[in-house]
Amino acid sequence: MNSQVRPKMNAPAITSGVTRPHEIHKAIKDASLRVIEIQLAELLHHGVVERFATDVYPRRTEYHLTGLGKSILPIFSQIDLWGTAHVSSVRNKTLSVELQ
């Protein structure tokens, strides 16, 4: 997979209304907060998300999808549909490889 797309799996979490790094961390439990912050920085660099930070205490940082980020959502939806349809066959193949 293209290295510019591979780490961008935070984009679907952002679309579900999750916009703060710690909220994304709660939604994607397998990823550390540090990894999420690194990936958000990459998304920001590539113009997929915008960063908004408040100046008031407590400081809040939020990320929102740009037009470019929103344009990839149909692809994520199709990947999700494919995964749902094929989860059992992929799981069975993974199990058989692990048992060998």
From TrEMBL:
A UniProt-annotated Pfam family: HxlR
Residue ranges annotated for the HTH hxlR-type domain, each copy included: 1-91
Alphabetical keyword list: DNA-binding, Transcription, Transcription regulation
Transmembrane parts of this sequence: none
InterPro entries: HTH_HxlR, WH-like_DNA-bd_sf, WH_DNA-bd_sf
Coiled coil: none
Name assigned to this protein: HTH hxlR-type domain-containing protein
Source species taxonomy: Bacteria, Pseudomonadati, Bacteroidota, Cytophagia, Cytophagales
